[in-house]
Design brief:
Order of helices and strands: HEEHEHEEEEE
CATH class of the largest domain: Alpha Beta
Distance between the termini: 34 Å
Strand content: 35-45%
Helix content: 25-40%
Largest sheet: 5 strands, antiparallel
Number of strands: 8
Shape: elongated
Strand order of the largest sheet: 7-6-5-4-8
């Protein structure tokens, strides 16, 4: 994590607990000449635009009132829901997605594949097991957690 992200998480983590929201993702990126501080938030029942506005205002108040300023350059603050294809950034998030349709990409290929989509059957601190179709055959793949490059919920078409 970057120093800015670390500072922002430390300043806002109590807010997420108080307001009963989960911080799904946080990024601080430069796009063109502009910097963006992006929060993806969630809670039971989903996130509304009013939730995003409320949290944006509260996060902005915390960051604006902190001295010294945790983000010295100008930036845009964005707060949104994680969307239907929510990222699974931690082992805990992967474990909580058991039973859901997921897309997982690997650092190193497994059986010649660099990614897989299917139902996450099991997950623990060591492995994730995904059921998927290879043409018409149902198979299972055991993926070491250390080999998971990216994971997200997926939409099955």
């Amino acid at each position: 994590m970057s120093k800015v992200i670390d500072k922002v998480v430390a300043l806002t983590e109590n807010l997420f607990d108080e307001e009963n929201f989960e911080l799904v993702d946080l990024s601080f990126v430069k796009e063109g000449k502009n910097w963006y501080l992006r929060f993806a938030i969630d809670h039971d029942g989903g996130v509304t635009i009013d939730d995003c506005a409320l949290m944006s205002e509260k996060i902005g108040d915390i960051l604006d009132s902190t001295d010294p300023d945790p983000i010295p350059q100008a930036y845009f603050l964005e707060v949104s829901s994680p969307g239907a294809e929510r990222p699974l950034k931690t082992i805990e998030a992967i474990k909580n997605a058991v039973g859901k349709y997921v897309n997982i990409s690997f650092y190193q290929a497994i059986d010649g594949e660099k990614w897989i989509e299917g139902i996450l059957e099991q997950a623990n601190d060591e492995v994730a097991i995904v059921s998927y179709y290879d043409k018409t055959r149902l198979k299972q793949l055991e993926i070491p957690q250390s080999n998971i490059a990216k994971a997200r919920l997926a939409i099955k078409f």
